Amino acid sequence: MSANPAAGPGSSAHARGTGEAARSIKTQCCIVGGGPAGMMLGYLMARAGVDTVVLEKHADFLRDFRGDTVHPSTMQVLDELGLLDAFLKRPHNKLDQLSGHFGADTVAIADFRGMRIKTPYIAFMPQWEFLDFLFDAGAHYPNLKVLRRTEALDLLRDGETITGVVARSEEGRLEVTAALTVGCDGRHSVVRECAGLEIDDIGAPIDVLWFRIAKDPAENDRALMNAQPGRILVTIDRGDYWQCAYVIPKGQTDSVKARGLDQFRADIVATAPRLRAHIGDVKSWDDVRLLTVSIDRLKRWSRPGLLCIGDAAHAMSPVGGVGINLAIQDAVATANLLSDRMSNGCPNEKVLDRVRQRRMFPVRVTQALQIQMQNRIIGRALEGGALRAPAFMKVVNVSPWLQGLVARVLGIGVRPEHVRSRAAAIS
Fold first, then answer.
1. E strands within 262-400?
2. pTM of the model
3. Topology given in CATH for the domain delimited by 206-292
4. How far is CA 328 from CA 38, 74, 244, 412, in A?
C-alpha cells in the first residue's frame, strides 16, 4: 500500500532560504504525523467534509515495538463509526483477564468479562495493522490525502499565526498551506518544538527494552506482569510469539549491556521461566530495542492556527498501555469540537484551546495513576530485596467487583469520548 505525494491545488513557490523550488498545496487541515492520533483525526475530519492532508515521514506503518493495545474505549469509537466489524477481521489477540506474578504471588488484577459493552476485552493488534486499517477506511474519502515519505521540517507563519507546514518529500520541498495545522507527531514532535510550546516534564524513572521470543502453542500462562526482586518483565501474548518489555532504571541501558548478553538472557528466564525454551531468539543486542520512557504534557496545546494532540501534547508512560487510546480520544474530541467550525477557516485560539480544556483532566488523572504505579510497584520491584504483591493488589485479587472496576478504569478510562462530529455526504 502506498500513497505518493501528489500536487494538489496551488502553485509552485520558491522555498525560503534556498535555491530550491518548492511545490505547494492548499488544504483546510494539515495533520503532521500518521500515528493513531493523526490517522484517526484525518479520518474524522474527512468524514465531516473537511479537506485534510496527513503528512507521514515514513514509507509505511511497518515499524515494530510500538504500542499495540487497543482498549474497549477505542473499539467503542470504531463501533460508532460503523468500522468495528471490519476492524475485528484484522489479526489480533484478545485479553479479557489481566494477571501478574509478583515474586511468589500470582494475583488477578482486572477482569473485563463483566463489562456491558460489545467488546469486553483488550485487543492486541500490531500498530501497523491498526494504522493500515485506518488508512484503508480513509481511502473512501476523496478529500483525505495521506502523503507518505513526507517529513515536516518547519512551520509556515503569517505574523503570530501558523499557516501551514514546510516539508520534505521524495520530490523535494513541499509547502502545505492550511487553515489549521495539527501536530500529531509524537513525543519528539517537530511541530511543538517549532511552535515553541512549553513542556511540563513530569519525569519517569524507567526505560524499557523491547524484544520478541517465540511462544510455545501449549503455553497457557498469559500473565502480563512478571516481577521478581530487581527485575520486571511484561509479556504480551501475540499468538505465536511473546512481545516482551524488560523494565530498567532510567539511563541504565549501557550498564545492562555491559553485563553481557548471556546475563541479560539469564535475567529474562529468571523473571519468566516459561521463556526459557526460546530465549535463544535474542541472538544479539540488535534484537533488543530501547524505548526511552517519558511523562510530560504541554502547558499550552495551541497557537493561532495550530493545535497539538496525542503524544505531541502529552507523552505517556507505557504503564497500562493507554497511550494509543488517549491519542484516539484526543482525535475524537478535536473533531467533535472543531470540524463543524472549519468552513469559515481556522477557529480562533480560544476555540482551539477547548480541546486542551476537554482533554487535560483525563491526561492528568491517567499520568497520576501511572506515576503511582511507577513509584509503588515498579520502583520497589527494581530496588531488589523481598518482593510480594502490594496489599491493594491482594485485595483486588479476592474481589471480582474490584477486578471489574480496574478493568473499567483501564479499558474505558476517564471521560471517554463519543463520536459527535457529523458525517458529510461523499461527493
1. 289-292, 296-298, 302-303, 306-308
2. 0.88
3. Alpha-Beta Plaits (3.30.70)
4. 9, 7, 24, 12
Q: How confident is the model at residue 204 (pLDDT cuts 50, 70, 90)?
A: confident
Higher pLDDT, 42 or 371: 42
How much is the average pLDDT of 392-411?
Answer: 91
The span from the CA of 106 to the CA of 394, in Å, is 9
H-helix or E-strand spanning residue 95: strand 93-95
Output DSSP code: residue 276. Answer: G
Q: Which three cell numbers stand for residue 417?
A: 469520548
Q: Of 293, 419, 413, 331, which is closest to residue 364 (Cα–Cα)?
A: 413
How many beta carbons lie within 10 A of that of residue 117, not counting itself? 15
Q: Are β-strands 52-56 and 21-32 bridged in parallel, bridged antiparallel, or unpaired?
A: parallel
Residue from 238, 243, 189, 239 nearest 211 by CA: 243
HEC assignment per residue over 120-158: CCEEECCHHHHHHHHHHHHCCCCCEEEEECCEEEEEEEE
| Same topology between domain 13-64+126-202+295-372 and domain 206-292 | no
Distance between alpha carbon 408 and the CA centroid of its chain, in Å?
A: 19
Residue boundaries of the structural domains of the chain: 13-64+126-202+295-372, 206-292
> CATH homologous superfamily of domain 13-64+126-202+295-372?
FAD/NAD(P)-binding domain (3.50.50.60)
What per-residue confidence (pLDDT) applies to 14? 37
Task: Record the cell numbers describing residue 79, joined without a space.
Answer: 463501533
144-158 average pLDDT score:
95
**Rounded Cα gap, residues 129 and 16, in angstroms:** 38
Higher pLDDT, 377 or 145: 145
